[in-house]
Amino acid sequence: MKKPTPLESLIVAMIREDGPMPLDRYMALCLGHPLHGYYMSRDPFGPDGDFITAPEISQIFGELVGIWCAAAFQALGTPSRFSLIELGPGRGTLMSDVLRATRVMPGFNDGAQIHLVETSPTLRKLQSEKLGAQVTWHETVDSLPDGPSIIIANEFFDALPIRQYEFHQGQWMERRIGLSADDRLVLGRTAFPLAGPPASEGAIFETGPTRDDIARRIGAHLARFPGALIVFDYGHAASALGDTLQAVRRHKFCSILDRPGEADLTSHVDFESLRRALTQGGAVIFGPITQRQFLLAMGIETRAALLSRKAKLAERKIIAHATERLAGENQMGNLFKVMAATSPGLATPYPFGSP
Q1: What is the average pLDDT value for the chain, to the nearest integer?
Q2: Is 249 helix (H, G, I), strand (E, B) or coil?
Q3: How far apart are CA 317 and CA 182, in angstroms?
Q4: pTM for the full model?
Q5: Which of 33, 39, 296, 327 is the most buried (most CB within 10 A)?
Q6: What is the reported pLDDT for 45?
Q7: What's the Cα-to-Cα distance from 232 to each of 28, 33, 248, rounded to whole Å?
């Protein structure tokens, strides 16, 4: 039996003291504990980490997001100063690519004040190295500045804590983390008066109270000040039953109870719930559409062809592989969804249809 991780020992002690732990509390500790949280002490991105995000796959992704941001800047009336905000900015790769792409838009880079919502000291250091000193960091969205803003959220909402409920013997019960007889972490059920329709035995229902709360706050910000938000994440367009909580360690799936603090925990984003929360805050919502639809409309094929013409054979293969991975029907193209939100009264952002 492996020695428990430091965080596992802490969680075991908490459960002994307080009883079974809700999943959202467990996720928050695994990912964000100040000393032992997964994101707090390591760089999880890239080949040496546990997963690779779209900006790390190809510069094209960030460039096309930059073009979208430039169009949003025009829709806002080209303000002389505005906040360019990224939620969960990773290594800073996406923001760096966005700023390179927007250099061609007069006034954009001169007026952009960079704000990053990031809690990890390790990732803040990497972001600083990538983007320079002119960055303001925030622990939460609550301290974002007043005034016009363009907000980017790429694979941000999938890492926010969720709760799960299981239909068992005719009622919905909350799934919580408890302890076995030998003090190992186990996933169990506790009675919970959740109102919901009858379902088949063992059905799982997920809620994201943290996600929805943050979305409502962003929606309220867009209702108060002119701005636009774009969200990229994997998930489903309509709410549905199902267990989507997963753990990844060393690029392989593992149990969510395996080595707490050393694995990434995520779940599929419920875009219907996210849309509802943003609307409750006061924003106008567009989409979701698939990432494939978005990237094709924004010109990924044209940009890839242009880069390929200037590249050697080996580089052309890399570009083709990256393009397929980002937009392919059986890869990220259909699994990932894209949704936009704006302040009331702004034009419909391309390539989305009417709200």
Answers
A1: 92
A2: strand
A3: 52
A4: 0.94
A5: 327
A6: 60
A7: 21, 25, 20
| 143 φ/ψ angles, rounded to the nearest 5 degrees | -100, 10
In contact, 203 and 167? CB cutoff 8 Å: yes
Extract the tokens encoding 257: 């109870």
The number of helices, as runs of H, and strands, as runs of E, in the chain is 13, 16
Are the CB atoms for 290 and 336 separated by under 8 Å? yes
> Is the pLDDT reported for residue 132 higher than 90?
no
Residues 287 and 338: their CA atoms lie apart, in Å, by: 7
- Residue 309 phi/psi, 5° resolution? -65, -30
DSSP strands (E only) in 14-169: 21-22, 82-87, 112-117, 135-138, 149-154, 163-168
- Residue 150's contacts (CB-CB under 8 Å, 6 or more residues apart) are 69, 72, 73, 76, 82, 83, 84, 85, 227, 228, 229
Q: 125 is written with which tokens?
A: 């250091």
The CA distance from 348 to 16, in Å, is: 53
Distance of CA 68 to the CA centre of its chain: 18
- What is the rounded distance in angstroms from the CA atom of residue 113 to the CA atom of residue 103? 14
- Provide the 8-state DSSP code for 183: S
For residue 256, the model assigns a pLDDT of 95
End-to-end Cα separation, the chain, in angstroms: 54
